Amino acid sequence: MKSRESEISENLRAVEARIAGALKESHRSREEITLIAVTKFFPRSDLEILYGLGLRNFGENRDQEGSAKAIELPTDISWHFQGQVQSKKIPSIIEWARVIHSLDSIDHAMKFNQRLKEMGQSREFFLQLNLEPDRTDRGGLPADQVEGFLDAAREFSQVKIVGLMSVPPLDKSPAQAFAEVASIAHRLELPSLSLGMSNDFEDAIMAGATHIRVGSSILGSRPTPA
Question: Which pLDDT value is given to residue 225?
Fold first, then answer.
């Protein structure tokens, strides 16, 4: 039977081959892409394998899980928080996450800024864009509110908004959705794009993604949470 390390290593090589293909087609370089391994619900042993294979960017959706793993693993890992932000979790999130991909509230931006000022630090944030504004169960701002949000957030000096994050809606092709997000980011002079997951990251790279969030293509089917 294949070992877990062999399985993950083979999967990672396959993902890197897919990245290389998309980069070649879009005339971009590997240095332009941050590969984030989405490790939600996977055990520490899997993350240790990924670390041994050279990955340093891990993504978590739950503060409780991310904070626990961050304590147990090497300090040179860049942790990315990708879940919906809850106000009560902000002090904890900011302790372990270096990048937050899901900012969509001025109140949250203010609270992040207050906590970061107390710490004498700053963090990078992606503003989450909702391409399905009629879906109230999804986080994120509709496109027509992004510019106003950015204007209001300028007073928060510790909150560095570097780009947009979004998930394509079911009624649009990923390529179409990613192109729409990239166009908005370009117009607003935001340099980074957090786009693309296991099934569509090639389209994201073609559209200009700088960060791709890949889970199942590297680690396999997500285990049932405890």
Answer: 65
